[in-house]
């Protein structure tokens, strides 16, 4: 049944996923193990994306399937999943931009890979982001941007993080259709991408490096 | 310019016809939002007053020495909404967004799965007016009529300003690709699920929307006397979807629209956002000279040129981020490369990647315009 659930997610079988999760819960399987299978499936989806077999569409759909499975499992997990988190990330679309499609996909994929995600939403003021960083002490901050009008508030947030001594040890990421390597250099962020899957790969790599 | 051997219109059309112009035409996508930024006018003002939008556009046009053709820029966001150009909820500066932030589309699932059949049965226009528009706005019918009138008045003002300067709009006929329109109305994730799980339902709506769109586009382009029709698509590319999806849900309808327009001597101007790198080869199937591809900086325009050289005109693609955060030297260098490598043998219009950003640096915008106009 473990393999069935993984296959259902990887093959985007919308009808099978909730049925299989429910069946395994009824059978008394460890919810954490079921969640682990869902995460393994998302890793396989990511691999297919990296190989060019899958596209953003498949990432979107599998992310929805994962969310559905996770919602079914959540009441059974308690705090048992918290010890196994891969890292902590704060995400935001900064002031001047209300687009969140890419950010939301990224957040779901990160959760599927056991990251603790603090998603601040859209049109976020720099001071709010800095407060959140102070409070949650993340490993990563991800700035999402579809239009250039959020660049200035992103820059302000980064400067505030630097001024408050919060920048050291923090990996800053920039994603979204309007971002470029040149902009990443301009804003002094550590990583830039147009696709969510690459962002997850970067976080996993950095988290593995930090833990090594 | 004193050394120009062609008029702007001759230059633009020589380029579209894949002949060699006297220099590369320059046509930035200057919409009201960046015009406001460059003219020092608030976003709230141009989002709520047609004459302010037109004034900002022409202030910038005059201040920066002009360019070859101009984008229509007399609309307000609310007018794009009520006329179905952008059938989405919106955040508008001065109303529900701060005065200094440009209007934005609010991506929520307004269209439901059962609405596909209504579109297929009734046609998009009827569904939009009778049912859908009421989900977007609480404007009364009189308000909506007022918005439409103001848009036409703004259009007349825009054309009068063009006439004063003896320049032409690049196009006036304008529509979204049916695929893109449905994606906006359903929102991205549900629409993508529909493509996978309810394909026949989506196809029926696409069929009807395409059938309805073609005569309207031809009528619009012929009615305004400019044989170019813009067709916007921001979500069908290989960045989002596999070739299988592209070939089933986008390409056949696209070919129908382009060929129908071309049979009436109307050129389709594609506004293509996100990377179409994986899709470029398809465009070779279109009739030679029947389309212009406006690329946004995420498609590799240099590679696209190799695929489409001598077949279709390209337009682009000075990136928005470069105009907002780069230096004039960087902008000039990129424009020189574009003109040399993409425009070397014609078939290229220097433009912006998507639109000029609302926070473009004035010196960068000037560098783009002047570099384009000076290089031979």
Order of helices and strands of chain B: HHHHEHEEHHHEEHHHEHHEEHEHHEH
How are the strands of the biggest sheet of chain B laid out side by side?
Answer: 5-6-7-8-9-10
Q: Per the principal axes of the C-alpha atoms, what is the gross shape of chain A? A: globular
Instruction: Give the % helix of chain B.
Output: 40-55%
How do the SSEs of chain A run, as a string of H and E?
HHHHEHEHEHEHEH
Between the first and last Cα atoms of chain A, what is the distance in angstroms? Answer: 33 Å
Rounded mean pLDDT score of chain A:
92
**Extended strand count of chain B:** 10
| CATH homologous superfamily grouping of the largest domain in chain A | Cobalamin-binding domain
Examine the coordinates and then state which fold CATH places here, giving the name of the CATH topology of the largest domain in chain A: Rossmann fold
CATH-defined architecture of the largest domain in chain A = 3-Layer(aba) Sandwich
Structural class of chain A: alpha/beta
Low-confidence stretches of chain B are: none
Q: Uncertain regions of chain A: pLDDT < 50 for 5+ in a row?
A: none
Indicate the CATH topology of chain B: TIM Barrel
Main β-sheet of chain B: number of strands, strand sense, barrel status? 6 strands, parallel
Overview of the structural elements:
The complex is a heterodimer of chains A (212) and B (376). Chain A has helices at 2-10, 16-26, 31-50, 56-77, 101-112, 126-136, 151-163, 181-187, 196-211, and strands at residues 87-93, 115-119, 140-144, 171-175, 191-193. Chain A is of the alpha/beta class and 212 residues long. Chain A has 2 domains: 2-82, Methionine synthase domain (Methyltransferase, Methionine Synthase (B12-binding Domains), Chain A, domain 1); 85-211, Rossmann fold. A 5-stranded parallel sheet of chain A has the order 2-1-3-4-5, with helices on both faces. In chain A, helix 8 (181-187) links the parallel strand 4 and strand 5 (191-193). In chain A, helix 2 runs parallel beside helix 4 (56-77), helix 4 packs across helix 5 (101-112) and helix 5 packs parallel to helix 9. The mean pLDDT of chain A is 92. With 376 residues, chain B is α/β, with parallel strands linked by helices. Chain B has one domain: TIM Barrel (Alpha-Beta Barrel). Helices cover 52% and strands 11% of the residues of chain B. Chain B is built from 17 helices and 10 strands. Chain B has helices spanning 8-16, 32-39, 43-48, 50-63, 77-82, 115-122, 124-136, 141-165, 178-186, 188-197, 199-224, 243-249, 251-262, 301-308, 320-325, 328-342, 362-374; strands at residues 69-70, 89-91, 104-106, 168-169, 173-176, 228-233, 267-272, 291-295, 313-318, 348-352. A 6-stranded parallel sheet of chain B has the order 5-6-7-8-9-10. In chain B, strands 1-4 form a two-stranded parallel ribbon. In chain B, strands 2-3 form a two-stranded antiparallel ribbon. In chain B, strand 8 (291-295), helix 14 and strand 9 (313-318) form a beta-alpha-beta unit. In chain B, helix 9 crosses helix 10 and helix 16 packs parallel to helix 17 (362-374). The N and C termini of chain B lie close together (12 Å). The model of chain B has no long low-confidence stretch (mean pLDDT 96). The chains are: A alpha/beta (212), B alpha/beta (376). The A-B interface holds A 12, 14, 54-58, 60-61, 64, 95-101, 123, 147-149, 151-152, 177-180, 182-183, 186, 194-195 and B 91, 97, 101-102, 104, 106-107, 188-189, 192-193, 195-197, 238-242, 245, 273-275, 296-298, 319-326, 330, 354, 357-360.
């Amino acid at each position: 049944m473990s393999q069935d659930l993984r296959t259902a997610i990887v093959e985007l079988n919308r009808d099978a996923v909730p049925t299989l999760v429910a069946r395994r819960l009824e059978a008394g399987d460890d919810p954490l193990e079921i969640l682990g299978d869902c995460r393994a499936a998302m890793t396989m989806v990511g691999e297919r994306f990296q190989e060019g077999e899958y596209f953003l569409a498949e990432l979107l759909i599998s992310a929805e399937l994962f969310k559905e499975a996770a919602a079914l499992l959540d009441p059974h997990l308690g705090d048992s999943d918290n010890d196994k988190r891969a890292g902590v990330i704060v995400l935001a679309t900064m002031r001047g931009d209300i687009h969140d499609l890419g950010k939301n996909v990224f957040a779901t994929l990160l959760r599927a890979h056991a990251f603790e995600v603090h998603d601040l939403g859209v049109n976020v003021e720099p001071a709010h982001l800095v407060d959140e960083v102070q409070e949650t002490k993340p490993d990563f901050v991800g700035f999402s941007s579809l239009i250039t009008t959020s660049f200035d508030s992103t820059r302000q947030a980064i400067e505030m993080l630097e001024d408050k001594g919060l920048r050291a040890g923090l990996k800053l990421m920039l994603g979204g259709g309007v971002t470029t390597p040149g902009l990443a250099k301009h804003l002094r962020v550590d990583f830039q991408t147009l696709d969510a899957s690459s962002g997850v790969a970067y976080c996993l790599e950095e988290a593995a490096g930090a833990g090594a | 310019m004193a050394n120009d051997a062609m008029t702007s219109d001759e230059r633009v059309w020589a380029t579209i016809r894949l002949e060699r112009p006297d220099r590369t035409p320059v046509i930035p996508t200057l919409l009201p939002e960046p015009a406001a930024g460059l003219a020092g006018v608030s976003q709230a003002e141009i989002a709520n007053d047609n004459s302010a939008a037109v004034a900002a556009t022409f202030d910038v046009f005059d201040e920066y020495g002009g360019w070859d053709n101009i984008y229509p820029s007399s609309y307000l966001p609310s007018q794009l909404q009520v006329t179905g150009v952008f059938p989405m909820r919106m955040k508008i500066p001065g109303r529900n967004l701060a005065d200094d932030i440009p209007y934005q589309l609010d991506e929520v699932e307004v269209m439901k799965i059962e609405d596909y059949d209504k579109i297929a049965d009734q046609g998009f226009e009827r569904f939009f007016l009778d049912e859908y528009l009421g989900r977007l706005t609480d404007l009364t019918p009189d308000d909506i009529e007022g918005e439409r009138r103001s848009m036409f008045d703004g259009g007349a003002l825009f054309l009068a300003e063009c006439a004063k300067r003896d320049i032409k709009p690049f196009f006036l006929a304008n529509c979204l690709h049916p695929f893109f329109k449905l994606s906006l109305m359903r929102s991205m994730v549900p629409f993508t699920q529909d493509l996978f799980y309810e394909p026949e339902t989506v196809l029926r709506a696409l069929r009807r929307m395409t059938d309805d769109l073609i005569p309207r586009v031809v009528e619009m382009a012929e009615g305004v006397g400019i044989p170019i029709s813009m067709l916007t698509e921001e979500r069908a590319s290989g960045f989002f979807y596999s070739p299988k999806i592209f070939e089933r849900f986008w390409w056949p309808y696209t070919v129908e629209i382009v060929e129908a327009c071309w049979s009436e001597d109307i050129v389709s101007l594609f506004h293509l956002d996100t990377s179409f790198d994986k899709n470029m080869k398809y465009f070779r199937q279109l009739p030679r000279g029947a389309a212009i591809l406006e690329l946004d900086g995420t498609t590799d325009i240099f590679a696209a040129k190799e695929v489409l050289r001598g077949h279709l005109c390209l337009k682009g693609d000075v990136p928005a981020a470069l105009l907002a955060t780069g230096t004039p030297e960087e902008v000039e260098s990129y424009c020189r490369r574009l003109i040399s490598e993409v425009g070397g043998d014609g078939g290229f219009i220097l433009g912006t990647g998507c639109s000029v950003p609302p926070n473009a640096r004035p010196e960068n915008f000037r560098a783009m315009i002047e570099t384009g106009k000076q290089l031979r």
